[in-house]
Amino acid sequence: MRRLSRAIHLPAASAKLLARGTTPTTTTTLFARGNSSGLPPQTAERYAIARGKFQVLSQQHLDHFRRLLPSSGSVLTAEEDGLDGYNVDWLKTVRGQSRVVLKPSTTEEVSAILRYCSEHSLAVCPQGGNTGLVGGSVPVFDEIVLSMSRMDKIISVDEISGTLVCEAGCILERISDHLAEKGLRMPLDLGAKGSCQLGGNISTNAGGLRLLRYGSLHGSILGAEFVMADGTVIDVLSEMRKDNTGYDLKQLIVGSEGTLGVVTKLSFACPPKPASEAVALLACDSFEDVLCLFREARQGLAEILSAFEFYDAASAGVAREHLGLSSPLLRDDGTESPFYVLVETGGSNARHDEEKVHAFLERMLSTGRVQNGTMATEPSKIKALWATRERITEALLHDGYVYKYDVSLPLRDLYGAVEATRERLAGHPGVTRVVGFGHVGDGNLHLNITSPQYEEAIADLLEPWLWEQVAAARGSISAEHGVGFKKRDVLGYSKSPEALSLMRQLKDTMDPKGILNPYKTVP
Amino acid sequence: MRRLSRAIHLPAASAKLLARGTTPTTTTTLFARGNSSGLPPQTAERYAIARGKFQVLSQQHLDHFRRLLPSSGSVLTAEEDGLDGYNVDWLKTVRGQSRVVLKPSTTEEVSAILRYCSEHSLAVCPQGGNTGLVGGSVPVFDEIVLSMSRMDKIISVDEISGTLVCEAGCILERISDHLAEKGLRMPLDLGAKGSCQLGGNISTNAGGLRLLRYGSLHGSILGAEFVMADGTVIDVLSEMRKDNTGYDLKQLIVGSEGTLGVVTKLSFACPPKPASEAVALLACDSFEDVLCLFREARQGLAEILSAFEFYDAASAGVAREHLGLSSPLLRDDGTESPFYVLVETGGSNARHDEEKVHAFLERMLSTGRVQNGTMATEPSKIKALWATRERITEALLHDGYVYKYDVSLPLRDLYGAVEATRERLAGHPGVTRVVGFGHVGDGNLHLNITSPQYEEAIADLLEPWLWEQVAAARGSISAEHGVGFKKRDVLGYSKSPEALSLMRQLKDTMDPKGILNPYKTVP
Ligand SMILES: Cc1cc2nc3c(=O)[nH]c(=O)nc-3n(C[C@H](O)[C@H](O)[C@H](O)COP(=O)(O)OP(=O)(O)OC[C@H]3O[C@@H](n4cnc5c(N)ncnc54)[C@H](O)[C@@H]3O)c2cc1C
Ligand SMILES: Cc1cc2nc3c(=O)[nH]c(=O)nc-3n(C[C@H](O)[C@H](O)[C@H](O)COP(=O)(O)OP(=O)(O)OC[C@H]3O[C@@H](n4cnc5c(N)ncnc54)[C@H](O)[C@@H]3O)c2cc1C
C-alpha cells in the first residue's frame, strides 16, 4: 500500500465537486441538463398496455380539488404549470400524461382526495421525491399525481429513546442533518438523499448504504399513518419499540410502492450517531480480493463496520468522464484499478476504532489483497471519498439510455454477472459501457448498461437472459429498487404463482377499485 | 461499589441451579410440578364464548388423518394419549378440549391437512413449543392441534453470509448452540429457549433479551415458507438479504399467531458471534438510577451493548423463594436491593470491550448511581448472572395464579406502572405479590401480580384500569407476548377501529372460513 495517508489529497478545486450529497435536489435541475426534445416517449405508446376503466379528469373534478385544497400552489395543471417534472421519471425512461398534480398539506386532505377519487373512479399516482428507478413514481396514462412534498414537518425527536416522528414528505438529507444535531443517525442513507422522501423510502423499502449495519426498514420503522384507497386513515403511528397488538399493519406498507395506501406519517428508531467515523477507499486487483476483504472486515471490524461497498473500473470511469470525479487511487500509469472498495466504520471510541481499522488494513496489506488505499476520518474528507460511489447512477445518465439492473445474488456469483453481461454484449456497436457496483455486504449488485439511446436489440439480448441467470442462482430480480412499472411483468422470475396470487388478493382487499398506482407492482 | 470482582462468587452447589437455559424443556416436566386436579378450568366454561360453526371431529376424519400421516406417533388422540399437555397453556390458565393432535413431518403433510380441514370446516390450532403467554397456542374448544415439533430439521447454515435456513419446529436453544459452533449468533434469545420453536417465535414476533442490539424479527427474518388455510403453500424462503420483488409477504406472518398461516420453514440473517462477552449485574437504589445507567450505557457501551434488563426486589424475591436463586448482591443486612440491572456486552476485541465496560462502571460508581456490582466474562458465570432474570416468569408460577401484563410505556413511566398497581391492590388480602421486570432498552415492562388462585375481584381491580393507564400514555397493551386468546377483547386500547377492521379484512382474505386459530388475535 503506497499511500495509506490519513487524509485524501485532492486539489482544492475539485473539493466542491466531490462534496457528498450534491445529487441534484430537484427534478427541475435534472431536466435542465437535457433538452426538452430529450423527453422519453410516452410510456403508453412505447409499451402496449391498455388504460384501466378509470374516469377522465373533468373540469368538475378539478373544481372539487380546488375547493379541497384552497391554499395556493396545491393544485397544478398541465395547461398552467407544465407537468413534465412530475410525468417523467428520474432516469428519463418513462413518461406519463397526467393533467393534474395535487399537493395536500395534511392527512385530512389526503383522505378527502382519496375518498373522492375512489367514489369517482379516478386513478392516482402517489409521488415522493420522484427518484425511484423502476418507473413507479410517475403516471402511465393520466393518473392524478398526488405529490407528498408539502407534508414535510418534523413532528418530534426523542433524543433519549432515539425516536423520530415526521411527515412522509420529509426529505431524507434534511432529516439526517436534523438528527445529527441531536446526536442521532438516520438508519438509512443513499445517493438520492438530497431529493428522496421518507415516504418514498418506506414505499420502496429502500436499502442503501448502511443496511449492513442497521438492517432493513422493516426493522427500523416503528409506526406509520397511511390512507387507504377509500380515504380510511390507518393510524398505527406507534413510538414504542415493541407493539405486538395484532397484525403489524405498517409492514404491509413497507415496499408496497404506493399501491396499497398513501403514507402520511412515519416513526423510526434511530441509533446514536457514532462518535468516531472513518472511511477507507481501497483498490483491489480482483473481485476475489474484494470478497476476501469483506470476510475480514466482517470479522475484524465487526460491530463498527457500517458500510462495505464496491465499484469497478468502468464505474469509476463514467464518474470521471461525466462528472470530473477522478480517483485518488489511480495506478502509476494513470489507469483505474479493476476494483474499488469503500469501507466505512462508526463507533463510540475513536482510539479503539482506529486500532481496529489499522489492524484490518495492515492484515489486508500483508496478504497482498489490497494494492493501494487511502483513509479519512474528517467529515469533509469522508464525503469526498464517498463521492464517486454515490454519483455513479447520476453519471451513467449522461451516456444516454441506461438499462438498469439491481439484483441480489449469492456473493460468489456477484461479479460474474457483470462479466457474463460484457461477454454477451461484446462487439455490439450500440453499447457504450457495462458497469458493476453495489452493496457487497448485502449481496446486492447494480449492473448497468448504457447506450446513446434505447435500442430494442440490446434490451432483447439482456432480457429474459439476465432474469434467467438470476432465477437459476435463486437470486432476486429486484434487490432494493422495487417493481414499479418496469419489473411487473418479470416478477415471476423471483416469485411463485401462489405468492403472486396472494399479492393480488391483498391488493384487491385494500384497494378494490384498483385506483392506487395502477399498472404497477402487482401483475 | 464494594464488589466489582471479575467473576461471580457462588457456592459450587448452586452452580447447577443457576445454569442458564434450565427452563423446563417440555410441558410434561411442568405438569409434573402440579397435581392433575390443578388443571385450570376449561376456557369455554370460564369465559362466555360461543363455539364457531365448525365440524366436530368424526371417526371418518380421524381415519383420513391416519392415512395422511402414516408414520407412528403422528396422530395422537385424547382417548389413547391424554392430551392435557397440548390443551393447557404453559401458565396453566386456559384449557381447551381438543380430541386430536396431528404432527406432520413435511410441508406437504401440513398442506394436505389444511386442505382437508378447509374442505371439511374443521378448526385448527397451530402449536409450537406451547410456551406462549397469552393463551394463543392451545385450543379454546375442540380445535385440532397441529403440532410442529416434528418439523425440526436444520436445512443449511452459510457461515460467510450468516444465513440460517431451517424448519419451523426447530427449538431455539438447539439452533443457538448450532450457530455458536459456526461462529454465528441467533439474533433472538429468551427465557423459554429450551422449549420454544422458531415458528412460534416468528408467529408471536418474540422480542426477548437482545432486541436492543439486533432489532426485531421483522428485520432478521429473510424468508419464510407458510401454508395458508386452504393448503396453498407460499414459498418466499429467500436467502438473500434484499429482495424487493413485490409485497413482503413473510412480514404478514410475523406476529400473526397462527391465524393467517402455518409457518413451515424460515430463513434468518444471523450476526457473527461476538468474540468477547461480558455481563455485569448491578444493584441500584431507585428506578431513576436504572434509567440513568441506561442512558450512559447507550452512549458509553454503544455498539457493544447487547442487553439491558432490569428486575425489582420483589422479582428477585420470588426467584429466591421458589427456585433457591439468591442474589450475589444482597445488602449487608441480607435484604434485596430495590433494583437490579443486567448489562450484557458483546464485541470483537476483548481488550477494547473491557476498557469500555470498566470506564462505564467506574463512571457509574463515581456518580453513586450504582450501589453494588459484579461482573463475569466466562460463559458459565455469565449464565449464572442471567439466571434470576431469566427464571422470574417460571418462579411466579409457583405462587399459584399469575395476572400477567406485558406493556410498552415511555421510559419515564415504566416503573411507575408497578408502583401504581401496588397502591391500587394495597391491602387486598388475596394478592401474594406485585413484581416488575423487563427490557429497559425496549421500553418493555413485565408487570406480574400473583395470588394463590384466580380471583375475579383482583382481575376487576386490574382491568380495565391498567389498560386505561397504558392507553393514556400511548403505550402498547401487548409489547411482545401478542394477543392470543387473552387480549383479543382489549385490543381497542392500542388499536383504532379502522386498524382493527383492516386486520379483520386481512384475516377474511387469507382464511375465509376462519379455521386457523379461531377465537384468537382478531376481534
Ligand atoms: C442517485 C440515486 C441513488 C439511489 N440509491 C438507492 C440506494 O442506494 N438504495 C435504494 O434502495 N434505492 C436507491 N435509489 C432508488 C430509491 O427507490 C429512491 O431513491 C427512494 O427510495 C425513493 O424515494 P422517493 O421519495 O424519490 O420516491 P418516488 O420515486 O417518488 O416514489 C417511489 C415509489 O414510492 C411511491 N411513493 C412515494 N411516496 C409515497 C407515499 N408517501 N405514499 C405512498 N407511496 C409513495 C411511489 O408511488 C413510487 O411507487 C436511488 C435513486 C437515485 C436516483
Ligand atoms: C419462561 C418464558 C419466557 C419468555 N420470554 C419471552 C421474551 O423474553 N420475549 C417474548 O417475546 N416472549 C417471551 N415468552 C413468550 C413467547 O411468546 C414464547 O416463548 C415463544 O415466542 C413462543 O414460541 P412457541 O414455539 O412456544 O409457540 P407457542 O406457544 O406454541 O405458540 C405461540 C403462538 O404462535 C402460534 N404458532 C406456533 N408455531 C406456529 C407455526 N409454526 N405456524 C403458525 N403459528 C404458530 C400458535 O398458534 C400461538 O398462537 C416467554 C415465555 C416463557 C414461558
TrEMBL record, chains A, B:
It comes from the Eukaryota. The keyword Cell membrane does not apply. Gene3D superfamilies: 3.30.465.10, 3.30.70.2190, 3.30.70.2740, Uridine Diphospho-n-acetylenolpyruvylglucosamine Reductase, domain 2, Vanillyl-alcohol Oxidase, Chain A, domain 4. Residues 94-273 form the FAD-binding PCMH-type domain. GO terms for molecular function: FAD binding; oxidoreductase activity. Keywords: FAD, Flavoprotein, Oxidoreductase. The keyword Kinase does not apply. Its cofactor is FAD. One of its GO terms (cellular component) is mitochondrion. Belongs to the FAD-binding oxidoreductase/transferase type 4 family. This is FAD-binding PCMH-type domain-containing protein. It comes from Polarella glacialis.
